[in-house]
Description:
alpha+beta; three-stranded mixed β-sheet; 18% strand
Amino acid sequence: MTDAQQRHFDADLVWKLDRFGQSLRHLANALAELEALGVAFVSLRDNLDLSTTSDR
Length: 56
């Protein structure tokens, strides 16, 4: 999250959601923080791309 806050990247790409979030609460909070920072989130295995309006 430190790198995201410092704008070191524009998108966070993960293989699966369960590899990113430790719990549902952690996942929801992290996704909200990334969205507030303007960082896109993409999960390949779950076919989820939060950079598009249809997946939000």
